[in-house]
Amino acid sequence: MVDPRTQPVSRTGVAGPKFSDEDLYDLASKYSTPYFLVDEATLRRKVSEIESAFTDFRGKFRVAYSVKANFNPSVIRTFAGEGIMFDLTAPSELQFVTRAGGSADSVVYTSITETISEYEEVIGLGVRRIVVASHNGLANLSEAAARSGAVINVMVRVNPEVHVHAELRGSMGHGKFGLQFNGGSRDSAFSVLKSILSNPGLRFEGFHFHLGSQVEDPACYAEALEKLEAFVLSARRQLGHFEVRTLDIGGGLPVSYGRRVPSPRDMASRIVGQLNSLVESFGGRFTLVAESGRFLTAESTVLVCRVVNIKEFGETRYVYVDAGYHMLLDSALLRHEYPVEVVPGGRYAQQKMALVGRLCDPLDVFPISSRSKIGGAEVGKLVVFRDVGAYSIVLNMPFHSQPRPFVLMRTNDGTYRVARKGQDVDRLFADEGGDCLND
Q1: pLDDT in tens, 145-158
Q2: Is residue 270 part of a domain?
Q3: 114, 148, 342, 372: least surrounded by Cβ within 10 Å?
Q4: Sequence-ordered list of residues with C-beta below 8 angstroms from that of 161, at least 6 positions apart, any chain
């Protein structure tokens, strides 16, 4: 086994936070591997990137963080400190936000099941901006609002039914989310809008749509906005004038994962002019909200693991690490090619390389990005997976009875602290029902 600290240091030049080799090894010695490491400064920078992209919009602009991407309290507290909004879809997420420094006033709540009990709970906790996406959902919200005596600002989630070139699509035939503009049934945006406007206990706030994740062509946003404008003007002719106070265009800003993708400014520059035209068309300024989970968090975090074995099989050199896809589930589900580097690096290997995890599963082979540098891999060295801040920590599962690893954070002042304690086998055994054996 080599002593990694005596080896030459190389850099990949990849985007995202930079950590010194010495710090990574010191943290590995203190907390063991694997561990997640979050950079606070990168979280804050990603907020600024989105905000600056929409500076030409003639109205108020807000960023909303989709908590489902990473609900670590330290991450939430960082975004709360930036004064942004939060996109939530579960009462438990609301408790995380409020307990980590956010407020119910900053929440856009979008339920999927839209039950009375869920609405009663979030209204009781102070949420007043709620998105509906069905006739039954609106009826349940109306009843919950009436019981509470609160006036709720209601947004209608529409499905523009536009073709979206994206990794995960939320439009065009994906009817789980949103309402058709005019479907001829009670579950249409027109019917639901009409009911909201006639209900004195509800206040119409605006519209919401979400086209997908990893959207790379802003043309789908342009088409969705065109359809929404036509719908609003048509609805006003039939229902009379109503004000649009908020327009939430959802998320979808892409993360590179090893290849070039449009930046927030690239995306925004294609639609800001159209959004400004909507201000004129709607007859008043509205608040524009852009949601993001993946873009805000992905580049902030690395997964640090260790090379534990190397095997030659035919013409391929297999590099085994002490992590697995149970920590990077999108590598198996979506074949994400996370940028990877060996620390410290070495000469690029001429033979074919395969990076594999510690799970007894043939899917536990990590796709390797063109940005990856895995030359110089030897037993004992560290391997760093970049851009893992979105969905990896929240989807981390205890496959093979593997306890959850530490989550660490580098704060703005350069110090390192624990953002989530690592789990030991005793705690995992108890959490999985070991405490029930003596009942």
Answers
A1: 999 999 999 999 99
A2: yes
A3: 148
A4: 171, 172, 173, 180, 227
The CA distances from residue 345 to 2, 22, 59, 68, 384, in Å, are: 13, 13, 48, 34, 11
Q: Among candidates 205, 39, 40, which has minimal Cα distance to 108? A: 205
**Within a domain: residue 100?**
no
Same domain for 277 and 332, yes or no, is no
User: Where is pLDDT greater, at 389 or 336?
Assistant: 389
Give a yes or no: residue 287 inside a domain: yes
pTM of the model: 0.92
CB 149 within 8 A of CB 174: no
State whether 279 and 358 are in the same domain: no
Strand partners, 6: none
CA distance 93 to 319: 38
Token look-up 């905000």 returns 51
Number of independent structural domains in the chain = 2
Element at 309 (helix H, strand E)? strand 301-313
Measured distance CA(118)–CA(103) in Å, rounded: 18
Q: Which positions ≥6 away from 367 have C-beta within 8 Å?
A: 331, 335, 336, 337, 338
Cα 112 from chain centroid (whole Å): 17
Q: How many CB atoms sit inside 10 A of residue 391's CB?
A: 22
Residues 45-91: tens digit of each pLDDT: 999 999 999 999 999 999 999 999 999 999 999 999 999 999 999 99
Query: In this structure, are residues 246 and 289 in contact, taking their beta carbons and an 8 Å threshold?
Result: yes
Taking the C-alpha atoms of 95, 101, 106 and 108 in order, what is their torsion angle to the nearest 10 degrees? Answer: -30
Pair of tokens at residue 379? 């037993």
From CA 89, how far away is CA 115, in angstroms rounded? Answer: 12
Q: Quick one: tokens of 269?
A: 């520059």
Q: Are 304 and 17 in contact (CB under 8 A)?
A: no
